[in-house]
Amino acid sequence: MQLVQNVPFFSIMLAMISAVVTPVLPRRAAKWLSVGMVSAVVCLHIWFLPFMLSFGGSYNYMMGHFPAPWGNELRAGLLETVIALALSIVMLLSQLSGMNKLQRQIDTPKQGLFYVMCNLIMAGMLTLTYTNDLFTAYVFIEIMALSSCALMMARQVGHTMVASMRYMILSLLGSGLILIAIALTYNLTGHLLMENIHAVIARYAANGAYALPISVIIGLFIAGIAIKCGVFPFHMWLPDAYGYSTSAASAVLSSVVSKAYFFLLVKIFYRVIGIDVVLSDMALNLMLVLGVLSMILGSIGAIRCLDIRRMVAYSSVSQMGYLFAWIGLGSDVGVAAAMFHLVVHALCKSMLFLSVSPLCDASGDSKRFVDLRGAGYRYVIPGIAFSLGAMSMVGIPVLGGFFSKIFFAEAAISGAGWVRITLLAALALSTLLNAFYFMHTVLGLYRKPREGFVRQPFIKSRLTAVTLSVFGAVNLAIGFFAKDIINLITTGIQNLA
Amino acid sequence: MKKKIADILRQRFYGDESPLDEDMIASLGEQPQGLTRSSNEALEALEGVRELRVQRAQEQEHEMYRQIHAWSYSSGVKIIQRLYRILSAVTCFGIVMFLLWTVNTLPPFGDPGNPDNNEVAARYVELGPGETGAVNMVTGMILDYRAFDTFGEATVLFTAACSALFLLKLHDHKDGKPTKTWLEAEYDDRFHEPKNDQILQFAAKLLTPVVLLFGFYVVLNGHITPGGGFSGGAIMGAGLILYLNAYGFKKTERFFTYRTFQWVTFAALLSYAGLKSYSFYTGANHLESGVSLGVPGNILSAGFILPLNICVGLVVMCTMYVFYTLIRKGGV
């Protein structure tokens, strides 16, 4: 085994160890340790990706001296590497970009704990991406659930307290459903390792045995992850949580936490239950229905908002709906499109959250659209970043969002019968609604400025300027390299099964 | 009563004099004349109208909610509560029955031919003591075969303790002076906690050393007899809480403060991570770990399991104690 193959293990252990070390460090050291750890993980993955490309296929990594069904195991493949790299980049940029705001919004003695939570979320994200064992996944779901609650309430105001309480209850319900599903799976198959469960379930599916429990398992996994991602009927915690917590926390929650959960669901479909079994199962329609509903209703919710942060938050509901609906479509093309959109949306939504907060600062700390009029002139770089993100979400060509819309449409056309019509109609309607609320906001940012607010200097804070520029560049790059990325993802999905 | 709600709703939505429609018409009529639609002023006026309309609609919605709320408190409270209870009971009952039905189709409980009675369990039972050196197979499984999961579990406790600190901890100092909220909380606890409760103090004096010693024994013998870090740590935590209840914070603060908690969890989890990283790395790269398992049954045996058990026990003890103190006082 070559040294580079240890990268998943090194990354996870780095994140865990820095989480453990942070509480005893002074505040500044805690901050830079966290940033340094995430950058190290990004660098390790940049080293790892070319290796995985030339390696072709995947390999299992034994955690300890005992082989897989007895010991724990990680599994590294191309898709996992791409997702982990993208989400680590999002994490790094979010931490850097939200740093100044965070220092103002969170009580000084508690800022160290904020970085503990960031490190734990990083560890959870990496483990959910790389694990090959269902129970390890559950343990890290618990870690993610607790630490995302803490991130939400880091800025201690009434709204975030209520929101994190709601999230806590709903998220524990979601964890409970996932735990029941894992227990049922173990009872049926006697394994926790993904490959072994897959083999046993394939045998059952061939005999037609245990059809009902398998459907229930799929349904419970879908419901549990849907609650954690904030898809439509379970979205009531989301707008307050993303809308009022500090901007770095919103970006991390919307772009790292929910994406990691979603990737776990895809992994469960492909590697645990087997995509053939999932596709022929009725429970998958649940995903389609939830996805389509949340695409439309999330957008309508965003239109009703008078507050820019809540609008961006609601738009998350509708974008998670896209992911769910296109997995529910039930084809490899659909899953590839959803995975591409996962990367695009992670990069884009975090940029939106982080560019909104300087714009609000330049408008007298108000988040209302009326006060934000002309904020694009007052603070140039965040204005450009927001417009870029909004255009990408709407699907203006050359940006990443455009390609994900194209891949979505292609995948929907390859579907059958009424599913094709529903998805295409939902895509069209939702894009229209997206364009309405995002373009309305962008136009508002570049109208005649409202009086009474001071124009900010071009580079007020070097950190914000640099990170937002990098964010913008990454979002543009995703559009330029869309073809390569979707090829990577398609190969990765073939390896995943 | 029904009529009253119906009236409210009708007025809101279908009434002859719906204020929303009137406003809309009125505001549209007020549009400045002679301006092209694309000019900034016209856009601003339009947005103003939209803003006003949305606000009005929201005010009306709030008013409606307020009225319904008022009604529900006067006489609707009983109906709504009953409906809510019935509906939640029906939903839960439905889900429970459905899941029970599912469980009914699973393999029968305790049947030797069940799928979970497979090679995984067989190896844990048959080869466990030989491969891990631990006579207690459960400990061997959680701290050697599946040590990564257990590291995750210990970290869950650490996460929970840190989240509770985030939420509940009061700042004890600001610019070198104790803060007011902290002083009040301190006073509350000092004032209300039992002082000189002879029975409790006598019982604690007798029990605390025994409880702590027993907890420590359970932790140390985790690889030989039933028990281990999790259960032993819980016992030690309970012992500390008993002592705290009898003698108060002033006495426990002599040996257990926030800094103790920080450093103990830090040291325990870091040594867990260090030891296991070594064995994960050597295992994955097929290197010899060079750790001897010793004679199964001896206290110094089973490789890393003994230190790992101590680490887990310390983390569990600190977490339990910290939860208790945070809920009590808002500080450790």
Percentage beta strand of chain B = under 5%
Query: How many β-strand stretches of chain A?
Result: 2
Rg over C-alpha atoms of chain B, rounded to the nearest angstrom: 32 Å
Order of helices and strands of chain A: HHEEHHHHHHHHHHHHHHHHHHH
Counting helices, strands and paired strands, the structural category of chain A is mainly alpha
Indicate the multimeric state: heterodimer
Percent in helix of chain A: over 70%
Beta fraction of the residues of chain A?
A: under 5%
Question: pLDDT below 50 for ≥5 consecutive residues: which ranges of chain A?
Answer: none
Give the total of domains of chain B: 2
Major β-sheet profile of chain B = 2 strands, antiparallel
Fraction of helical residues of chain B: over 70%
Strand order of the largest sheet of chain A: 1-2
Strand order of the largest sheet of chain B: 1-2
The overall strand count of chain B is: 2
Largest interface: A-B, 64 and 64 residues
Give structural notes.
The complex is a heterodimer of chains A (497) and B (332). Chain A is mostly helical and 497 residues long. Chain A is 77% helix and 2% strand. In chain A, strands 1-2 form a two-stranded antiparallel sheet. In chain A, a hairpin with an 8-residue loop joins strand 1 and strand 2. Chain A is globular, with a radius of gyration of 22 Å. Chain B is mainly alpha-helical. Chain B folds into 2 domains: 2-104, no CATH class; 137-329, no CATH class. In chain B, 73% of the residues lie in helices and 1% in strands. In chain B, a hairpin with a 2-residue loop joins strand 1 and strand 2 (177-178). In chain B, helix 4 (119-132) crosses helix 5 (137-145), helix 5 crosses helix 6 and helix 6 (147-168) packs antiparallel against helix 11 (258-284). The radius of gyration of chain B is 32 Å and the shape is extended. Chain B starts with a helix and ends with a helix. The mean pLDDT of chain B is 80. Chains A and B meet through helix 1, strand 1, helix 5, helix 6 and helix 7 of A and helix 3, helix 4, helix 6 and helix 11 of B.
